[in-house]
Amino acid sequence: MEILRLFVIALMPNLKVLLITVLGSFLAMKRFDLLSETAISNMNTLVYFVFSPALACSSLASTMTLRGLITLWFMPFCIVLTVVVGTALGWLLVKITKVPYHLKGLVLGCCAVGNLGNLPLMVVPAICREKSNPFGDETVCYKNGMAYASLSLALASILVWSFAYNIVRIYSPKEICNEEKVDQITQNPTFASESEKKVIQYLKMLSKWSNLKLVFPPTLIGAVIGLIIGVVPQFRNLIVSGNAPLYVIQDSIIMIGNACLPAMTILVGANLLEGLKGDRVKFSLIFGIIIIRNIALPVLGVATVKGAVHFGFIHHDPLYEFVLLLQFALPPAVAISTSTQLFGSGKGECSIIMLATYSFAAVSLTLWCTFFIWLVL
């Protein structure tokens, strides 16, 4: 009966995510014509430039302090570990299944970075709100859970938009064409005049600045700003606290950021619909990503977190341990789908991969959450 109760607690948040995802699929159907290809592209742009940076900034500014950041040092280590191991396993999968060049970035990104932003922010607070939640007082659980999930979101934003995003970009045909154009411009005028050489140098400089801006995307900038506001007392008192003179700024950013999670989850549903229209990805590739993200990494997570508790690297906190374990068992980050939409590379294949991995995660994540809750109590 205890396991059944934990299963129900773990099931509810995943059902919420599933319902919003199904809504996105319905809205994208031609019968309703509410999420056309143009609308999906525009929503992806809004998520990338507006919603995601606002959510990262407001969440960190509200919940993170310098003391909390120091206390939670093991979370960045765990997230980086998932990325390193996931990338290594993804590279092996690419070699074994002989993935086409333009899909290598997509496969590596799906294996490397999980949905560290959306799912923890939806799963953890939802579990805390359950009447029979296993982590104690609802208010304390919710406050601490939001702090843990917000840090996870911020770290995910940094890794997704600086690592996975750029992996997809590097292997996209559009990026290859741009690099070839720059090379042609800079290499062809052999007998150029002095003024022409200055123009060529200026083009090279613009190319470097363009790549630099791609390394520091909007969500990463939002996360850094939110972190600075949260850990610097002067900024926190000026913007975040209830009596802060500029609290209206924080409140506005929170309102904008709140649109990120439903928007991204609806986009997942819309993109999943594309996965039903064709079969253009090897079964072995999909199976490999599922094994990496839903079996190999969760097992690694159990060994890492329980080992850290055993050797005293982190203090025993069931909720904190649960969030750490949850980060190892998540399906691929939905922002990878956004990246393929922005670059126009591997959109159909990404839809199929997302459809398969999220369909499997609907069951596996519930089972892992049940096991994780039982393990940490």
From TrEMBL:
Keyword Endoplasmic reticulum appears in the UniProt entry: yes
Protein name, entry field: Uncharacterized protein
Cellular-component GO terms for this entry: endoplasmic reticulum membrane
Pfam families to which the protein is assigned, alphabetical: Mem_trans (PF03547)
GO biological process, one term: endoplasmic reticulum to cytosol auxin transport
Function in brief: Involved in cellular auxin homeostasis by regulating auxin metabolism. Regulates intracellular auxin accumulation at the endoplasmic reticulum and thus auxin availability for nuclear auxin signaling.
Keyword vocabulary terms for this entry: Auxin signaling pathway, Endoplasmic reticulum, Membrane, Transmembrane, Transmembrane helix, Transport
Compartments (UniProt record): Endoplasmic reticulum membrane
Taxonomic lineage: Eukaryota, Viridiplantae, Streptophyta, Embryophyta, Tracheophyta
Transmembrane segments: 6-26, 46-66, 72-94, 106-127, 147-168, 214-232, 252-273, 285-304, 324-343, 355-376
Top-rank lineage group of the source organism: Eukaryota
Membrane topology classification: Multi-pass membrane protein
Family stated for the protein in its record: Belongs to the auxin efflux carrier (TC 2.A.69.2) family.
